[in-house]
Amino acid sequence: MEGRFNWAGVIEFIPELGTGLYYTLLISIVGLLIGFILGAIFGLGRISKNKLFYGISAVYVEVIRGTPVLVQAIWIFFALPLITGYNMDSVMAGIVVIAINSGAYIAEIVRGSVQSIEKGQVEAGRSLGLSQNQTMRYIVWPQAFKRMIPPLGNQFIISIKDTSLLSVILVPELMFQGRLIASNYFNAVEIYTTVAVFYLFITLTLSYVLRIVERRLDVQ
Amino acid sequence: MIKVKDLHKKFGDNEVLKGIDCEIQSSEVVCVIGPSGSGKSTFLRCLNMLESITSGDVEVDGQNLKDPKTNINMVRTEVGMVFQQFNLFPHKTVIENIMLAPEKVRKISSSEARERGLKLLEKVGLSEKADQYPSSLSGGQQQRVAIARALAMEPKLMLFDEPTSALDPELVGEVLEVMKQLALEGMTMVVVTHEMGFAREVADRVLFMDEGIIMEEGKPEQIFSNPKSERTKEFLNKVL
Ligand SMILES: Nc1ncnc2c1ncn2[C@@H]1O[C@H](COP(=O)(O)OP(=O)(O)OP(=O)(O)O)[C@@H](O)[C@H]1O
Ligand SMILES: [Mg+2]
């Protein structure tokens, strides 16, 4: 078996894999930031008494949750331009996919966390004369946010891994670079193993950071 | 201070309050007693609009709660409420719990709110707990903080919904003591309670509620030693 795989040769491809890593991180970070904003908005939509806001939020969440990310990516990159006449570059499309996809799941996380805050908390706030908005802002939201962190971390990890599917819409992320190299140099074992290790490195680092954040927020 | 006229409250088809009439004067202490499910909490919660009113009129401090022009948040600043489950804000320290509403609603400065809060903590005997979180306090201490939090808005009226029912028996006394003090200072109070000893000693008037109406009311001596209604007799026989 010795000598059959050229592990040392992987070094040669570090620049390409580095580019891939850069796009994976870029799309993950920007996509999840936007996803978080979408999630906060539509999560509140799903507990809103406003029928229109509720309706839009519900449709958004159900459509996105009910369709595969791969289909969403291909639809946004290949189909949407035919409708709008506007061509998005693949990185932009990748960010949009991750943002819209994670946004729907984050909306559910936001809704669940806000609804998990005991009714008595709101009543205590309102009985002191705080308005609905003040009660949300000072009492419900801070407590809900703390409860969101573990499921949010989970979703971040899922979305980071989902970026690998964006290789099909030609985003030059980690998986795309790996496929490119492996098909040119016939070193699938070495390259795909390295790619897997890169993903693992990102997700384990994130898990570690999240654990620290959780512990920090739990000091009381 | 409070005028209630023919108050009805329905949850769906379930009519919980079936015509309540009652007036409460300034500085009066009124205890509300009655069997479980008779509508005591619902009645209390209608007084600060935590429950909407189905029909009838409720006037608090001269303001009709059903009038769309009434600013309900303003009315609530005058009406303190203490809950069975305390409902302290777990993410805020004791002093922050007390300071929140005065700062955000009354818009007083943080240092003034703090000073006021510390005075109130002293009053309820918890000065040394100011910077702790509620979770490190006993139930009795938490309820005393909740009372201080309500008092920080300098309300004209305090509502208590079974403030000692969630407490271990040995912690009930310290909370009742604070409430008694408050009554002596002339606070207007409406207290839903199962503590008949407290009602007998502190109340100016006792309301006995049953099945959504006020079945009987009177001075505590009269209600406890010489109840007129059969239902009141039955209830008191069970609890005393
Ligand atoms: N939010 C609600 N929705 C529907 N029904 C309710 C609601 N709140 C109270 N009820 C019903 O109203 C009735 C009266 O309840 P309420 O809590 O006022 O009674 P109570 O006299 O305070 O009883 P307890 O001594 O057990 O606290 C009960 O039958 C209860 O099921
Ligand atoms: Mg009750």
TrEMBL record, chain A:
Any one GO BP annotation for this protein: amino acid transport
Membrane topology label: Multi-pass membrane protein
Segments passing through the bilayer: 20-45, 52-78, 90-110, 152-171, 191-210
Entries under CDD domains matching the protein: TM_PBP2
Keyword check for Membrane: yes
GO cellular component: ATP-binding cassette (ABC) transporter complex
Cell compartment(s), UniProt: Cell membrane
A Pfam family assignment: BPD_transp_1
Example GO molecular function: transmembrane transporter activity
Signal peptide: none
Keyword Nuclease applies: no
InterPro entries attached to this UniProt entry: AA_ABC_transptr_permease_3TM (IPR010065), ArtM/GltK/GlnP/TcyL/YhdX-like (IPR043429), MetI-like (IPR000515), MetI-like_sf (IPR035906)
UniProt keyword terms in alphabetical order: Amino-acid transport, Cell membrane, Membrane, Transmembrane, Transmembrane helix, Transport
Highest taxon, organism lineage: Bacteria
Domain ABC transmembrane type-1: 21-210
Family of this protein: Belongs to the binding-protein-dependent transport system permease family. HisMQ subfamily.
Protein name, as recorded: Amino acid ABC transporter permease
Species whose genome carries this gene: Oceanobacillus halophilus
From TrEMBL, chain B:
PROSITE patterns reported for this sequence: ABC_TRANSPORTER_1 (PS00211), ABC_TRANSPORTER_2 (PS50893)
Subcellular location: Cell membrane
Protein name: Amino acid ABC transporter ATP-binding protein
Main localization, broad class: membrane
GO terms under cellular component: plasma membrane
Keywords recorded for this protein, A-Z: Amino-acid transport, ATP-binding, Cell membrane, Membrane, Nucleotide-binding, Transport
Organism name: Oceanobacillus halophilus
Membrane topology: Peripheral membrane protein
Family note: Belongs to the ABC transporter superfamily.
Domain ABC transporter stretches: 2-236
The keyword Transport is assigned to this record: yes
Keyword set includes Membrane: yes
Cross-referenced InterPro entries: AAA+_ATPase, ABC_ATPase_HisP-typ, ABC_transporter-like_ATP-bd, ABC_transporter-like_CS, MetN_ABC_transporter-like, P-loop_NTPase
Any GO molecular function: ATP binding
Highest taxon of the lineage: Bacteria
Pfam families assigned to the protein according to its UniProt record, in alphabetical order: ABC_tran
